[in-house]
Give the backbone structure.
Amino acid sequence: MPDSHDPLRSLFREAASAGQAATTPSPVAVIERRGERHRRRRIAGIAAACLLVLAGSGAALSAFLPADPGPTLPATTPSPAAPSPTSAPPPSSTTTPVNSMAPPSNTATPGSSMSPPPGTTPPRSTTAPPLGATGTSYPTTSTSPTPPRSPR
């Protein structure tokens, strides 16, 4: 049976009634700011977690994917390449130097009026290793077909 004349119980009731009288509810603006701050923190936490998941999955994918996928094949069937010379003419004193040779007729030089059709790239020009005399090289042109680029 509870004792109704307990001094500690009466002190607690007195303190509760004093605290209740002194309290006032917070203004609505303060409560709204507190809620907005909580919402922003929650969204920032979710965004950070998403970024960590994306970064982790990207790192895992890069670890599992092969480093060199191999050569990529052209999208279209390449046209037959021009046959390359199997032997070079012997160098003589009557031949013209390589630097004064005119470029092949199917390639465009910088500044010339010939330009490749839109959507294609000009053929690549490579130089073969020296044959015969030292320092003499013969220009060769290798054309690699490139598929037309689609507009984005």
